[in-house]
Amino acid sequence: MENELKNCQDTENTQNDESGGDANAQNIKDFGMTDVENPRGNIHTLTIVGQVEGHMLLPSQNKSTKYEHVLPLLVSIEQNEKVDGLLVVLNTIGGDVEAGLAISEMIASMQKPTVSLVLGGGHSIGVPLAVSAKRSFIVPSATMTIHPIRMNGTVIGVPQTYEYFNKMQERVVNFVVKNSGIKKEVFTELMMKTGEIANDVGCILLGDEAVNCGLVDEVGGIREALECLYSMIEQEKEEN
Prior knowledge:
This protein is an alpha/beta fold. It is 47% helix and 22% strand. It contains eight helices and nine strands. The strands form two sheets. Strands 1, 2, 3, 4, 5, 6 and 9 form a seven-stranded mixed beta sheet that branches. Strands 7-8 form a two-stranded antiparallel sheet.
């Protein structure tokens, strides 16, 4: 009888492990996110790729990150006692300003350790997303595009439109300056630079350049980002 009970428990544990693995694989497939268990701490990996989708749906062939998926996910991560830290992996061309800022504000206000890693690109609204974590990393080959706020579609040519764009831009600038080491004058100068982007103003920074101007904390890859996150988790456990 005891052997039968033990066999039943072993079968149930195996099924739970398999279902947990299947759920993790499904999360990677559907949302580009996964949970990693480690003796040093359990981390949740969130990927922000393609274009950040706002209130308007993007075409189905576009790679996109939907803010209505990410926002409740961040709430659950912050409240989940089993999750010790968050790793945000970025390869984005930018997207909706308000959606990107909403995600950035959520990450910046989290109490748990957070680390961001820019791979490929962290362009446009990807800049606030990259600096929103407590520590930010960028690989040497990655780039970050900084430019003024832009809008597609019909624009009414009145002073109020300019004021609206100016306020939107100030929100982005103030957030980036508050959550990174770059000075406001430097960031504004980079945003208004001419001659680097065809038919537009702004500039493109490589990994080393983003670190040198204070926009990103360190040059590094996945190894450095994970080591930093685990160190932050260990420090938090010691303090508590």
